Amino acid sequence: MARIDELASIGAIEGTKGCARLALTDADKAGRDLVVTWMRDLGLGIAIDRIGNVVATMPGFGSVAPVMTGSHIDTVGTGGRYDGNLGVLAGLEVIETVMRSGIELTRPLAVAFFTDEEGARFAPDMLGSLVYVGGMPLEEALDITDADGLVLGDELARIGYAGAAPCPGVVPHAFVELHIEQGPVLEAEGFAIGAVTGVQGISWTEVTVVGQSNHAGTTPMELRHDPGYVAARIATFVRELADDLGPPQVGTVGSLSLHPNLVNVVAARAVVAVDLRNTDDAALIHAEQRLAQFLDEVAGAEGVTISTRSLARFEPVTFDDRVVRIIHELAAAAGLTVRRMPSGAGHDAQMFARVCPTAMIFVPSEKGISHNPAEHTDVDDLEAGANLLLHTLLQLTGDELSWPSLTPR
Amino acid sequence: MARIDELASIGAIEGTKGCARLALTDADKAGRDLVVTWMRDLGLGIAIDRIGNVVATMPGFGSVAPVMTGSHIDTVGTGGRYDGNLGVLAGLEVIETVMRSGIELTRPLAVAFFTDEEGARFAPDMLGSLVYVGGMPLEEALDITDADGLVLGDELARIGYAGAAPCPGVVPHAFVELHIEQGPVLEAEGFAIGAVTGVQGISWTEVTVVGQSNHAGTTPMELRHDPGYVAARIATFVRELADDLGPPQVGTVGSLSLHPNLVNVVAARAVVAVDLRNTDDAALIHAEQRLAQFLDEVAGAEGVTISTRSLARFEPVTFDDRVVRIIHELAAAAGLTVRRMPSGAGHDAQMFARVCPTAMIFVPSEKGISHNPAEHTDVDDLEAGANLLLHTLLQLTGDELSWPSLTPR
Q: Which CATH superfamily is domain A2-198+316-398 in?
């Protein structure tokens, strides 16, 4: 908790518990320097790679692949103090605890923080971990610019974190990330721990409806071709679709605009953004198909023209069930209430799922609030998560026989 | 048609058939001067009242109350050439025709144009006719300012139309206004003439929905309190309500805004404007009650807070059924297809309905377009409307016995 407090004092947002450490800013550099100092004080071997990811590994194990944990320490513009930071500092705490305890390991533990996880300054998000696992060429990543035209590679060099370690990096034996849930499920259902089974796939579709603008007083209902009505039907359909398909399907219309948007004018045009998410890609495709079918039907019935374009499409990530099971069993053995659950948000761990056995541990977020200075998790929950991370990492270092069927994903 | 073309050349919008003659501007003055010249050329007695209404009456009838027709010659900022102008110039044509034919009348015909019917420069609309019938004190009307702070009374004097005739004005024996429909019904249903039975009442309600903003990915459906969904439910309910109640009930949501209006954020707040109209006030009140009941239900079911405020509320106007019947019968006798119908928009005639037997004649509007330079009505329809106005006014001058039950409304 002392380390969390000290790191949160860098870029602190006055009058709140939150902080602002956008990737590769001076505040991010100060945060990085502090965490690297702690890593060095523990005697860990520190590797900084060419995209600025920092990996600290227990010394004395030669080239044996580590069991890795970690997360990020960059934040959104007005962020909380736990998002990302918890996973890095709990990892550090676990390693310190193991080293002090004198436990003998057959492979090392490592803790990392990855560059620009939030994507709030340089898109896409989870950039550092993406490059680490070979998902994006290094040179392409270094050329990304922010909204002011500043180049990522230049900013990385400016703050002194353009390291020498190669990308892609060393493939870990396994990867586990501890993170706040950023959603309300654990709190609402009274669980202390989420054993995270994967990350939802995301489908964003922008739907444009063009009809016939008319006088709201003089146009009989049966002569209308009303994009406003169709937009509303789409929004209610998305709710009905998610309810009908059931969890883990979610669906949201958070953006809906009418033109000209006047009280007494039947709209000429409406633009609706549909956000569909599911942990199973086949199910997500099914939901997309149901939406497309509905759009055809409602366009025909109302006599409007509907066009769509994809704003984003990410396939779901499935975590390794053996790792998820270990987390679940260790939590239950420790007397913690635990449930399996998907992550609704993206995390560095989903990149590692491409190359090694991976899963995540969630602790509750008060009211589900995140990306906001009001973000909060109780100390007891933070401690329980860190202890579970400790036991999970320990078990994974000793667990050589359970990966026979592993193939990279 | 020559007069319509000539009047439309004043304030003409280049490259279109439309014109711009906002009330009491130089263009309005030029239009007024032209029409007054025509009135004077016919030898009519011209009275300009203190709010700038101009009434031209056949001479030689002493103080016998006239059968009056008329409308307005001001336009919206980008208006058409028929809206208002048709009723004034057709009235002039009718009077010219009667005078040239040598028909002897027992009471005179009069044609008027009323100040600021559109309300596009000085609110409220139908201002001149409202003051004419005593619905607003003259001094209050003269003090109204436009968006630039210019005072109506000053502008009236500036263009030379602050007349001496008193307000309220002479109560006509009857009032009939010819106007384009400004809606699509006559064209869509293949009728040449609308015998207008009244003007719809209007109820505008602004509904504000406050819920819980959340992450669209991490918030399960059952934990949502989504103002965006509730706004969409309100919009679809308004359609269902209008369909359920049937004509003449109409209902529209043309304005709907979400906040923060982002793809991946369950909205925190939504604002929806509901436009309900009906020709029967009891029915309109019933529709308002059904809406209020629905708002209670949906707020409770979704766990959101709903507040409402009235943006506008006008009671319906019912025209005199005897005058409506005369219009209907004369149209049918002339071989014109005719239907009884309400007006969805406001007109000067609704003010006269307060003081004398009143109705309106509608001719079709192509595609229902009005308040737009593309406004169009075929010449044959204009001519049929003008001829029907002639016969209706003649019948009303001779029809002394049919008003026994008349009381001012």
A: Zn peptidases (3.40.630.10)
